[in-house]
Design brief:
The complex is a heterodimer of chains A (364) and B (243). Chain A is α+β, with helices and mostly antiparallel strands. Chain A has 8 helices and 10 strands. Chain B is α/β, with parallel strands linked by helices and 243 residues long. Helix content of chain B is 34%, strand content 15%. In chain B, the strands form 2 sheets. In chain B, strands 2-1-3-4-7-8 form a 6-stranded parallel sheet, sandwiched between helices. In chain B, strands 5-6 form a two-stranded antiparallel ribbon. The two termini of chain B are 13 Å apart. Classes of the chains: A alpha+beta (364), B alpha/beta (243). At the A-B interface, α2, β1 and α3 of A face α4 of B.
Chain lengths: 364, 243
């Protein structure tokens, strides 16, 4: 091998040491192998080969990336005599390539990772969606069923109600009259249950209780509802404090229903023979009605879902109804653009209904 | 049948094979994954060992209904030929092994020519395509004043390869150990050993000769690993003398 001084400098040997050595002596192991398996054959076959990337392995120090152009030299017979190599340093370019490669590999890994994550996410989503859809369908079916049931039960109940009224007009002895009274109570209770069921189904399917707005004085409406319950539970004391100087735009039947529900609950779940306080007033632009009773606090796990449908407590008197009362009351509150709240401690349990006085403005 | 080794394709034999065309039927082929073979047929599982390639040789021989043929294998294909001959003894009657090596890594008192870390370095280089060895080279039409016999061929295509396949083939080749298969082959065998061959040093050629019961060793004056290209006349002469 003959080489110029610069080459000697690059491989860190003295120029005098070069003759007798081979070019591949100064290459890394993979370079040596590459020369024998690729470079030399190619040169023999096509005579030139450009832009070969190799690494020089100097006597000391780090490897030196280079680019090589090679050309076979021949004599007049066409036999190869020597190979001429032009060598360029390519450290910068090499570093640039290495950086690019490493970024590319990182991106590839990231991409794959992302692809896997996305696949997993999609799977999870689809499963969740599937489940949700199935549940939703089931719920819809249930609610439709309830609505139909409620509706279909009304007719026979109406029939019984009318029939019993007519029977009362006929001559009856005391026993018969009592029995008819009991039956009327039962029919009334059944009607209430059917109403609750229908309200429930309607509110779930149609989004809220439908209201029939009237502008009324609320005091007599609430007083009437409270008195009905007072009459039925003489052992309890119901303190009524109402202050509604102006008329209010609302659905009075529904407000009465709400108050009835709250007061009935207070009577049945509060301290036996205790006092139930009912108050109603305007606080600025808000109308507030609250019902409180003394008695054991409502356990927190029930408190959490107290306004949810079909929630009932185990204490208090015999179970009545389906556990829809508070749910329907809270829906009534919502339809009036208001809300129903509860606070319960060992001293006092208080339910508060709030709604905006002016119903045509946006909700509270 | 001429089999090329690691690096290029059947063009490695272009100065040697035609000389025998007068007296013999010449069979040339590209290993799967090299040259003009169907690269999509390359299977990483099949070619993880040299047996995969040996099976291909047997398949070619059977397809062509070869019997008592002469196998000439270069570099790693020399061992592929030995394996094939062991699998199907009747297809070949003589073997010519040019620069063979049954194991490249040194081992106890066996000299393969490379240390384990050197081969690891090589494989790592291929892994990161560090030197761009196996980049898919863009073919360039050579306008050939210089080598008229090449005509208008595509340059660089001889050693074009797919980077993944090159990596796999290098791994299979340089990590192979077929020393035990040598003594099983009793066919008359010519071992052609070059001087100063980095890839298959003289100690290896001597080992192959010692292991194969019916073999001859010829040490050539040619240097380097590819005497079929760098010293075709000497190669042809040695082969002629043997067959």
């Amino acid at each position: 091998m003959h080489a110029n001084k610069r080459f000697a400098d690059w491989v860190k040997v003295k120029p005098e040491e070069l003759p007798g050595k081979r070019f591949s002596d100064y290459l890394s192991i993979s370079g040596k192998i590459y020369v024998e398996t690729h470079l030399a054959p190619l040169l023999r076959m096509q005579g030139t080969y450009d832009e070969i990337a190799l690494e020089l392995a100097p006597a000391t120090g780090p490897r030196l990336p280079v680019l090589v152009n090679a050309r076979e030299k021949k004599n007049d017979n066409g036999d190869p005599t020597s190979i001429a190599l032009v060598i360029f340093k390519s450290t910068q370019r090499h570093q640039y390539e290495a950086d690019l490669l490493s970024v590319r590999n990182e991106l590839r890994a990231l991409n794959e990772n992302l692809a896997q994550k996305i696949e997993l996410e999609v799977q999870q989503r689809l499963t969740a969606e599937g489940r949700y859809n199935a549940e939703h369908e089931e719920a819809q079916f249930r609610e439709q069923f309830i609505a139909i049931l409620g509706h279909d039960l009304r007719n026979p109940l109406a029939g019984m109600e009318a029939g019993l009224k007519m029977v009362l007009r006929t001559p009856l002895d005391e026993k018969a009259t009592n029995l008819v009274s009991l039956m009327q109570n039962s029919v009334e209770r059944m009607n209430a249950l059917v109403s609750d069921l229908t309200d429930f189904a309607r509110s779930r399917m149609g989004g809220g209780i439908r209201l029939q707005y009237k502008t009324v004085q609320l005091e007599p409406v609430i007083a009437h509802a409270v008195n009905e319950i007072a009459a039925a539970s003489p052992a309890n004391n119901i303190d009524l404090h109402l202050d509604f100087p102006e008329s209010v735009e609302c659905d009075p039947m529904r407000i009465a229903q709400l108050v009835s529900n709250l007061v009935a609950n207070a009577v049945s779940h509060g301290e036996t023979g205790g006092t139930v306080e009912v108050s109603g007033f305007f606080a600025g632009s808000i109308l507030e009605i609250s019902v409180s009773n003394k008695g054991a606090a409502i356990p927190s796990e029930i408190l959490d879902r107290i306004f949810a449908p079909f929630t009932r407590t185990k204490n208090g008197q015999a179970q009545r109804g389906l556990g829809l009362g508070l749910y329907i009351s809270s829906e009534i509150a919502r339809s009036h653009k208001g809300e129903l709240k509860v606070q319960s401690t060992a001293e006092k349990t208080k339910f508060t209904f709030l709604m905006p006085k002016i119903q045509s403005t946006p909700s509270v | 049948m001429f089999a090329h080794g690691f690096g290029c394709d059947q063009n490695m034999w272009r100065f040697v094979a035609p000389i025998f065309a007068k007296d013999y039927q010449i069979i040339l082929f590209d290993l799967v994954g090299a040259g003009g073979s169907d690269w999509s047929a390359f299977s990483f599982e099949k070619y993880a060992t040299l047996d995969g390639y040996a099976d291909d040789v047997v398949e070619i021989a059977n397809k062509l209904e070869l019997q008592d043929a002469i196998f000439v294998g270069h570099s790693v294909s020399a061992m592929i030929g030995v394996l094939a001959a062991n699998k199907a003894p009747r297809i070949f009657k003589k073997l010519v092994l040019v620069g063979p090596s049954p194991k490249y890594i040194n081992d106890a008192d066996y000299v393969g020519g490379f240390t384990k870390s050197q081969i690891e370095e090589l494989l790592e280089t291929l892994d990161s395509n560090y030197l761009g060895w196996s980049r898919a080279m863009a073919p360039v039409i050579m306008g050939n004043g210089d080598r008229p016999e090449l005509g208008e061929e595509l340059s660089n295509s001889f050693c074009k390869t797919d980077p993944e396949i090159a990596k796999a083939f290098a791994k299979t080749t340089f990590l192979s150990d077929t020393r035990d298969d040598l003594k099983k082959c009793e066919l008359p065998t010519l071992v052609l050993q070059c001087s100063q061959d980095v890839i298959a040093p003289q100690a290896v050629g001597e080992f192959v000769h010692a292991q194969m019961p019916n073999s001859e060793l010829v040490i050539m004056t040619a240097t380097g690993h590819c005497p079929n290209l760098s010293a075709p006349e000497e190669t042809i002469a040695a082969i002629k003398a043997f067959i």
